[in-house]
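[09:14] KT: can someone run the structure on this one? pasting the chain below
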Amino acid sequence: MEQTRNETPRADRIHIGFFGRRNAGKSSLVNALANQTVSVVSPIEGTTTDSVEKAMELLPIGPVVLIDTPGLDDTGILGELRMAQTKRALTHTDLAILVVDATKGMTEEDQAIYAKLRAQEIPTLVVWNKCDLVQRDVLPKDSVPVSAANGTGVAALKEKLGQLFQSQMAGKETRTILGNGIGREDIVILVTPIDESAPKGRMILPQVQAIRDVLDREAVCFVTQPQQLAYVLASLETPPKLVVTDSQAFAQIKDLVPEEIPLTSFSILFARYKGVLQQAYDCVKGLETLPENSTILISEGCTHHRQCNDIGTVKLPHWIMEHTGKPFQFQFTSGNAFPEDLSPYQMIVHCGGCMLNPKEMESRAKRATQQHIPYTNYGVLIAYLHGILERSLSFLRTIGL
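[09:31] RB: done, structure tokens below
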């Protein structure tokens, strides 16, 4: 589904996943919460064959994405494919609803699903659907009873979700792109190359979100291309508090920005915003010890059309082999296609993840850690290759990586 211009980006929404056995009423409950038909429902088990996602506003939480998933008790070859979709949904679920069929009670399958959610450390509500078909005294005292069929308990479920969300947010830092290092009337320069990879007639999401973050702080934002940066810097009476560039332009502008002015990239800012910057920094120097012909996975969270001089498939491989003087093998993934098994790779280089929520980015980085594969980031790697890694992190070190 294409993002409309006035919507909160999907990556910044709370993702709420609905999990459970086949025919427990997950799709019906999603439709009841959304107050519209999001998923097809029928009495036939396994009607939901792919994860279905719906962006909407859900009070008292705010912007959310509801994720309807196939049953985790599916069978057969197609069932295994459906369950793979559900397991993938676990990687980007912030809050989970385990839907139990009240007419059947908490089964062994339900217990197994609940254990998966707990193992992923996903805050979970256990909701007993079809409560209109059973006596209330058969339900656990702490249960959340609902009937997706007639709407009973749906309003209470929304409140419970809001309480769960608030309890998870309590005491946690609310991350922003620029952190707390930019104040009112500080000047920030954003360097945004307009080349063959730039989309016609618009700016890319990280640039737009950075502009909004600067404006939210009542700071001053200048947006320019690399070839105008020297002119902009010379025109300012007050030096900028920060210069942020597309990582590809590091080599072009690093000597134009005086050493005393902090310089970083959109990709690095987003690595911090998504919670993976420290790991990306810790692992980047592992590039030096990779044996010849190692396989490096280069992964992007979006599925944009590749250009002839694409950053992921062309520039990064070239820069990596030029720096190390070694031949490597490269494989590429985009969008949702991030492997479960990372053993074929000796290093992973990931984009900033502007299209992926923090849960998904942290899940990918954690998977790499668990499988002992170095995991770094486009911006961090490019800064390292151009000899300005520490400089590119100096601003962020003042606010915490």
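[09:33] KT: thanks! The radius of gyration is 23 Å.
[09:34] RB: yep, looked fine to me
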